[in-house]
Design goal:
Shape: globular
Structural class: alpha+beta
Number of domains: 1
Number of strands: 13
CATH architecture: Sandwich
Largest sheet: 7 strands, antiparallel
Strand order of the largest sheet: 1-11-6-13-4-3-2
CATH superfamily: q2cbj1_9rhob like domain
CATH topology: Jelly Rolls
Number of helices: 6
Strand content: 15-25%
Order of helices and strands: HEHEEHHEEEEEEEEEEHH
Radius of gyration: 17 Å
CATH class: Mainly Beta
Length: 267
Amino acid sequence: MTHYPLTDAQRRTFAEDGWLHLPGFLSEAELKPLEDLYWRFLRREIPVPGRDYCDMTGDYNRPIEDYAILNVMLPRRYHAAMQGNIYEQRAASVTRQLCGEGMELDYDQFVAKPPHKNDAIFHWHQDLGYWPRTPDPRTASFWLALDLTDLDNGCLQFVDGSHREEKLRGHVPLLGDRTENHTMVARVDEKTDRIRPARLLRGDATVHHERTLHGSGGNTSDRWRRGYVIAYRSADTVQRERAMGFTHSHNDPAEVLAKIAEAAKGQ
C-alpha cells in the first residue's frame, strides 16, 4: 500500500509548526532493499561523480576516511533503478495531502553520520536559503530514518513556526565561499526560538516546509545516523529551477550557486 493517510490534526501541525513527524513511514521489509542500495552508494560501489559525493562539514578536498557527514546528492540520477521506489510513492501520497496537486519530485539525497563523529554538525539553515525563489512556495521535504535517531547521534531539530516568518533568516556560506563548501549557516537564537528535536525510530520520517529552520548536532554515539531525503516541490518550481541551470547537484556551476545565494538575501 502506497497511501499514508494523514489526520486533520497532522495537517494543522504541518501548517502551524512547519514540520511533521510521520511514525512507521516504512516497514522493515520496505526499508531493507533501500538500505542495501544506501550502503552500496556509501561504499562507492555505485559511482557518483565530482562533488555529489562529499563531506558536508569540511572542504571538498578532505580525505574520505575523515568525512564526518557522508553526503550523496541525487542518487536516483546515478542509479535509475531507485526511481519510483516505495518511499517515493508514499512520500508523494503525503505531499498531495499537504500541498495539493501539481507537485513533483525535485531531488533526493543521502546524509549519513558515522559513529563518534562529534564534528558531524549540520548547521542551522532553511532549505530556501539554498534554492532559487519561485512564485509557488509549496514544499514537502522528507527525511527517512534508517537508524534510531536522538540527540546523542545528531537527530534533526526544527524551529517551530519559523516558516511563517516574513523573511528568511540571514544565511552565510560556512567557509565564506560556496565553491569551497556548499554548506550555508543561518542565524538561530537558542534562547528565544522554539527548538524541538525529531526523535525517530528506524522507518519513521519527518516532512517539512522549505522555510522551516532545521539543523543537527554531532554524533557522539556508537551507532550510525543515516537519513534519506526526498523533496517535492511544484512542477512549475522545478521547471523554473532547471531553466536557471539549477539541479541541486553540488556540480552545478559556481555562478549559478552564487546567483541563488545573492537572491536569497532578503527573501
